[in-house]
Every structure is written in structure tokens, then in C-alpha cells.
Amino acid sequence: MSDLPLIQADRAVPPPAATTTNGGRGRRLRLLSRTDRVVITLMVLVPLLLVTGLVWLPAVATVLLSGTNWDGIGPIGEIEWVGVKNYDDVVNIYPPFVPAVQNNLLWLAALFVVATPIGMFLAVLLDKELRGGRFYQTALYLPVVLSLALIGFIWQLIYSRDQGLLNGVFGGETDWYGDPNVNIWAVLVAAGWRHVGYIMLLYLAGLKGVDPSLREAAAVDGSSETSTFFRVVFPVMRPINIIVLVVTVIESLRAFDLVWVINKGRNGLELISALVTQNVVGEASRIGFGSALATIMLAVSLVFITIYLWTVMREDKR
């Protein structure tokens, strides 16, 4: 009789749990039903197929076609390989290429030197929890949700030579969109108006993630708000700064909608993206030549995207 409690106690003790991670992982997988597994597989497979089919395969095909003289009409089997001839023609005998590169660089400079600091300044102001900050934040971000094509139509109401607000106020007759001497500057103002809201939101998110103790320590040391921002807060937001740099470069390269709506990228508004469209889907239909222009854009974009990814992965390892 004395052994009975001991036997019952032994029965009450649960068996030890498995300690191997593989066993625990296997049990978690067995908890998933067949339907769950199908759903998870589709959630991974469908985006992968879409990215592969809509991004990677066209990118690889563009690079391959840039070495051919295909006009998009003949059969693929008759495509003639011409090597780097298209790139040589782009640089040496294609007059719009140099103005397009200059305009893209000007676009980048305007967004990076003017629009980006303005967006950062607005983010700093909104981070101070001003009265009506939500309203200002929404109003400043609103242009970002609009397409550049729609922004072009909106600014047409301001730039119109006959009925535009700008000429009406100042009494001039400048054709802001038609004059090749001024239209690039008018377009940059419209593009910068949109870019400011985007940069403002990125920096505002970065400022919300800064440790408040850093600012408090700087204030105790007698640092001013301006000095605290540039010496303490701004360096801490290094990942955000890299993102802003990459976004600004990509925005300057893929700028297309606005100039295409105005005059299809001609008469002073030449951009590389517009030249690609003119050659690939325009009257000339020079697929190989247009692919060479697109490959140049892709190569420049990959440089900055690689810098961004390298920075992000290095931050994750710390």
C-alpha cells in the first residue's frame, strides 16, 4: 500500500518535451492543414512568378535585345546580332541623347538640392507636433498620390499662356510649356512639388524613430536645435538618408509621365525614358536601339540600388 502514492505520482508527471528545434519545427508544420499549405505556397509562388515574368524576364530580354538590330516586325529567328553598335550609335550619332542626359542630371540636381532639403525641413517642423500638423501633413503628401500625368494637367492651369494663373497675375505671355528655354524649369517646379511631399514623409518617419534621449543629452550639453539636428539626429538617420538618395536618383531617371503629357519629350524636354518610348513604341520602332537606351538606364539604377541593399544588409548585421 505504501507504494501506491509513488506510482500515482509517477503517472502524473508529463513526459519531457522534445528539445530539438527540428522536432519543434516539424510539429508546427504538422499543425498546418492541407488548405493552409496550399495558401502559403500560392502566396509565395504567385508573387515570385509575377516578379519573374513582369520584371526579371523583361529586364534580361532588354539587355539581350540591346545587342541586336531588331525592329519588332520580323521573326525572332531572323534577328541579327550587332554587338555594341547600338550603344556606339546612342553616344555618337543620336543628337537627342546628350540633351536627355543633361536634363536627367538637371532633374536629379533640382530634386536633390532643392526639393529634398525642403521636404526635410517640413518634416522637422511637423515633428514638433504643431497645431494642425495632421492637416498640413495630409495636404503636403496629397501630390504624391497623384500621377505625374495628372500633375502636368494641374500645372497646365498655372502655366497656360493664354488663361494660366501665372501669366494672368504677372501680365506676361510666356509659353511655359512650349518655350524650350524655360519649359524644363517649369516642369521641374511641378515635379519638385510632388517630390517634396514624398521626402517629407520619409524623413518624418525617420524622425519618429530617433531616440529622444539623444536630443535630451544634446540639450543638456547646451547644443542648439540646429546643431543637435545636424550633429546628432541627422547622422542617426543614415538608413533614411540612403533611402532618400536612392529614391531621388530613381525618380530622376524614371521621370516620364510629365514630359510625355506636355510634348512627348521633345522641344527642350528630352529625357532618357522618353527616348526609350519614342524608339520602342514610336513610329521608328527600333527595338534594339531603344533597348540599348533602356539598358543604360537600368545600369545606372542598379548602381544606386546595390548601394542601398549593401547599406541595409550591413545595418542588419550590426
From TrEMBL:
Keywords: Cell membrane, Membrane, Transmembrane, Transmembrane helix, Transport. Residues 101-308 form the ABC transmembrane type-1 domain. PANTHER family: ABC TRANSPORTER PERMEASE PROTEIN, INNER MEMBRANE ABC TRANSPORTER PERMEASE PROTEIN YCJO. It comes from Micromonospora tulbaghiae. GO terms for biological process: transmembrane transport. The lineage of its organism: Bacteria, Bacillati, Actinomycetota, Actinomycetes, Micromonosporales. The chain crosses the membrane at residues 38-59, 105-126, 138-158, 184-205, 287-310. It is found in: Cell membrane. One of its GO terms (cellular component) is plasma membrane. It is a multi-pass membrane protein. It comes from the Bacteria. Pfam families: BPD_transp_1. This is ABC transporter permease. Belongs to the binding-protein-dependent transport system permease family.
